[in-house]
Amino acid sequence: MIERVLVAMDGSDLAERALRYALEAHGDAEITVLHVVGGASPMMGEATGIALSDDEDGGMREAAEPVFERAREIAAEYDATVETMVAAGRPARTIVDRAEEFDTVVLGTHSSSLADRLLVGNVAKTVFQKSPVPVTVVR
Question: Does residue 126 have a pLDDT over 90?
Answer without folding.
Answer: yes
